[in-house]
Design a protein that fits this description.
binds nicotinamide-adenine-dinucleotide, alpha/beta, Aldehyde Dehydrogenase, Chain A, domain 2, 2 domains, six-stranded parallel β-sheet, 470 residues, 16 helices, Aldehyde Dehydrogenase, Chain A, domain 1, 20 strands, 41% helix
Amino acid sequence: MTEQEIKDVVRGVLRNMGTDTKADVQTAAPSKLMGIFEDIEDAIAAAKKAQKEIQPMPLEFREKIIANIRKKTLENAKTLAEMGVEETKMGNVGHKILKHQLVAEKTPGTEDLSTVAWSGDRGLTLVEQGPFGVIGAVTPSTNPSETVICNSIGMLAAGNAVVFAPHPGAKNVSNFAIDLVNRASVEVGGPENLAVAVMNPTIEVSETIFKHKDISLLVATGGPGVVTKVLSSGKRALGAGAGNPPAFVDDTADIQKAAEDIVNGCTFDNNLPCIAEKEVVAIDTIADELIYHMEQVGCYHASKEEVEKLTQTVFATKNGKRILNRACVGRSAKVILSKIGVTVGDEIRCIIFEGDKTQPMIAEELMMPILGIVRVKDVDEGIATAVELEHGNRHSAHMHSKNIENLTRYGKALDTAIFVKNGPSYAALGFGGEGYPTFTICSRTGEGLTSAKTFTKSRRCTMCDALCIR
Ligand code: NAD
């Protein structure tokens, strides 16, 4: 999708929201937010009570609540997007509106739950998907309210309540989204506190959630630290961790389209989505053409000296270790370039440079619209390089090629939860591609793109010697 197309969609969304729906946009003061508590024990107790209320209710009623969550998310998409950018200083409002719209419209609800049945001479056996109860969900700063809304829809569709541990740097927008979920429920006659959190989330609050006897499933969306934490908790845990998705372009690809797709995917919400293209691997014979087309669609080609300066700027040091400079994460190319004294116009949306696979801005997950390009001599070297750059995260990888064999080999070698072929990375989330969206992709624990069924337990229900009416 080009920048212009994105602007047109955003304009359409804003027009549709109009002044009539403005009255529905929430203006609650923080102290009045539904589902937000001072104390984590009170929050968990309230979620437990709400889950007991929702579980016996018909699926149709869960759907009624979910329909209202969808409606309120659409009505508040602009507010949520603006709050997210304002609070985290990351991403951009237009793309965040689209992300909220996507989650509101396409996150699966109760239709995602299925039943398996065996019927025969000895009766009828069903396997149904039931709720875990109360889920503890850690959410990131990069897609904060998108993850809260998406998790809430899926977890509630499966009959659960959820205690959120939002990133402290995104607590206001996350808690606002939690309030929205509860308001949506109460408005249609459902319980309050289907989603809860505390006013001030901290690591200590998360530790309490991880150990709490009333929480039976943990879901962590974030970097490697938090995923390792929940996986060592002793509870069942789903880990949606970090990636470093390579985009490989071979010599059979439509090079101009590949350039456009890669830049569109990489720059979406300033590269915050974990699935977004983080570096490019290109066969030498087409690399110059690819770079030319990338420059045509808003890329700034950094010189060697500028690459040095950028490397000094986008990383910081903590306890002797290289870490990301948070003042660069999720910022636009224009802002990042300004930090090294380069002034560009708004048409520049991505920074590109050529480098070796060990260059830190290529090897590490930046979450910035910066794409290092690694030249390789052939497909074999390209696949091997992409495997190395993905670091075994098994998260996401993308390829541009018309050769089915090359695509197949790449897919098998990378072995990732997401593999987009001949399109921008966001196509995997149902945005310009088939399928449903989620912002919790369980790469590390293998569930892949989560939805309502991911948040269920299997239950077998057997009737002996009856109810088979064949
Ligand atoms: P982060 O790891 O800094 O924080 C994520 C969440 O974990 C926050 O709520 C944070 O408070 C919490 N957290 C971090 N360390 C913790 C600890 N030791 N104990 C308890 N809680 C802890 O990540 P972020 O910057 O907010 O998000 C970006 C990262 O998340 C990237 O690595 C990105 O790839 C990943 N991510 C993955 C997915 C996915 O679906 N796989 C989705 C979004 C983001």
